[in-house]
Amino acid sequence: MRDAGALFDLRGRVACVTGASSGLGQRTADVLADAGARVVGVARRAEALNDWVERIGPPAAAVAADLSDRAALDQIAQRISAPFGPPDIIVHAAGINTRETADEVTPEGWDITMNLNLAAPFFLTQALVPAMRAKGWGRVVNFASLQTTRAFPGGVAYGATKAGVAQLTRAMAEAWSCDGINANAIGPGFFPTELTGPVFADPERAARNAAQTCVGRNGALEDIDGPLLFLCSEASAYVTGQVLMVDGGYTAK
């Protein structure tokens, strides 16, 4: 019988977390560092990233970059690998929701949403896969959403990308799991982050969302810890191509 603690031990692993400057991305980076990984946080806001590195200490490094710039992703991948070597784990938490209604969607809003939410997770992972393949071990965790399967107002572009993330995750698993690289996705419900700020700013709307769950409340940041650690560790060795909804049962009702 294997030691249960060893299943979730990330000592010796290198992780990359996009969107690490705030919200669930930063929470992810904290959890992986606490589990023993050396973590490279990636986001546009250098000051926020540097504050995070200062708080975590030597196991952390920062790469300030715009992941919506597809032409820069290969170079960004090289910068990610510089502090600790190529990552064994990559978590794609960076995202944008322009909240443009169907009649108001602009080409600019559409393109940045597609590039950041869907293209960046694929092309950045593609650039990092060779090193994972050489080790015979890797973990890719994408961020899905309630809008992976549900339509929300003002969510045309965002919902399209998050539905795409589910199929991208399955396709990644089909392509790379034979090399020891498992690909899964987390689908958060309503958590208090910058992205969901407009939701929580409306107490009645927040209460309605809480009532829609099976557990009767919206998410707290710590609710994401266990599922993420599971998907990033040896504990998920036989789990790949899955979307794990961490939503308090919102999508079950």
TrEMBL record:
Top-level lineage group: Bacteria
Organism expressing this protein natively: Gymnodinialimonas ceratoperidinii
Similarity comment: family membership: Belongs to the short-chain dehydrogenases/reductases (SDR) family.
Protein name, UniProt field: SDR family oxidoreductase
Biological process annotations from GO: fatty acid elongation
GO molecular function, one term: oxidoreductase activity, acting on the CH-OH group of donors, NAD or NADP as acceptor
